[in-house]
Amino acid sequence: xxxxxxxxxxFLQGLVDEFNDFDILVYLKDKEKIxxxxxxxxGSLEVTIQKNAFSSPYYREAFFQEEHFDLVGDMTVITYNxxxxxxxxxxxxxxxxxxxxxxxxxxPVEANxxxxxxxxxxxxxxxxxxxxxxxxxxxxxxxxxxIFKKALKEEHLPPHIRDMVKxxxxxxxxxxxxx
Length: 179
Description:
This protein is of the alpha+beta class. Helices cover 41% and strands 26% of the residues.
C-alpha cells in the first residue's frame, strides 16, 4: 500500500499546476514490495539522510529514468517544537484516474494540509501550499474529518495549527447543522 502525497498529489487534485518530484508515502509493512517494484522496472534506490525537519522511520530516494521519487514510511514532520506523523491508511486513499485507465492512489487534501502546515515551520514557501489546501477545504468541504480528529487526539500539534484544524471541523459541524 502506498499513496502519492505533497505537490504531485495536489497536482492530480487540481490544486497546483506543477510539481518537482514524486513523494510516495509507503505503508511500512510494504516497503520491500515498493523497493522490489523500483528494482524490477530498472529504477535505483538510495539510502539518504532526511532533512532535519523529518524523522520518518523509512526514507529512500528513488530514481527512474529522469524522475525523482521520495519514498517515505510514516511521514513525520518536526517543527514548532511539535511533531506530526501521517501514516498511510487504506480507507483514506483516494484513487485518482488519469489518462483514461491509469489509477493513481493519493492521500487526501486533509493530510496534505497538516503536512504542509507543519513544513512551513522550517521552509516558509510551504505556506502557499498549506493555504491552497485550506482554501480547498473551506470551499469544497472536508471529506476525511477523522484525519483531523485523530491529529487533535493523538498528535502534539502546535497551537496555531490545532486552532486551524478545530475551525475546519467546526465549519463542518456548522454546515451539517444548517442542512
